[in-house]
Amino acid sequence: xxxxxxxxxxxxxxxxxxxxxxxxxxxxxxxxxxxxxxxxxxxxxxxxxx
Length: 50
What we know:
mainly alpha; two-stranded antiparallel ribbon; 2 helices; 34% helix; 8% strand; elongated
């Protein structure tokens, strides 16, 4: 993926999400210290960090 342009990376990320990509398929697009903070909702009133 090092030869890819920034546009190629963004489009690859979007295509992976649209195809229902798993966490392991999305990992190459994310920084090592990436952290997802979910907004509170009915099933997790305090939110969630993944």
